[in-house]
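Q: What would this chain look like folded?
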Amino acid sequence: MIKNILKAIQAYTGTLALISKLKLWKYFAIPIIISVVTAFLIGLSAYGLSDNIGRFIAKIWFWDWGKETFTSISIVIGGIIVIAIGLILYKHIIMAFSAPFMSPVSEKIEHHLTGIKPHNHRNTTFQEQLWRGIRINIRNLAKELLVTIPILLLNFIPLIGNIASSVILFLVQSYYAGFGNMDYTLERHYKYRESINFVGRHKGIAIGNGMVFMLFLLIPVVGVILVLPMSVTASSLSTVKLIEQEKGLQQNSITV
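A: My prediction, written as structure tokens:
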């Protein structure tokens, strides 16, 4: 697992140079706009909602003693909840609606690595790629929210709860971010359920790719601009290699 996480992180090396070499920047124009607008709207909503959610949580404390302390803690927790859910929504929105634009990027990178032309893969239309992206990300969004809610409850445990929930949330969000990036390549090779199983077999690659994706979002402005170009390129490099490895193993087993 750790070895694969490091491999996925290492794949980011030289991504900007590869994007320029293959002249891929034009494909990122619309996804970058989607990314910036989505980040702005979610950030604006988060700013207005964190206090409200915190004060709503504070209402469960009926006693007068410790009321101020609990309210302060609740406001912090409210902020964490808004940021966590905001990040979840952000990444799934941009990944879903960027799918038709990212598939050609992944295609060109795969052709660069293997020399295999696109017509040798599954032929999908713009609409099919968009629907696939929406379907995958709705599925991942539901699963991620289901896992995130109990993790957020750890924040009520003093000190260690905040640290534990932050680490676990980061890993969970990283996994689903990497999952979405990998699917831009997988959609040409595998059907919906097959792709889910593929990512399940390579969780480390998904987490490693997603970790850098999430860290990019901490960089003001530049992060939301470069996050898709770099993460999709890195993921395409990793995923193409994994597909080739699995195909090689299948061929060897058939030969034997």
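The mean pLDDT is 85.
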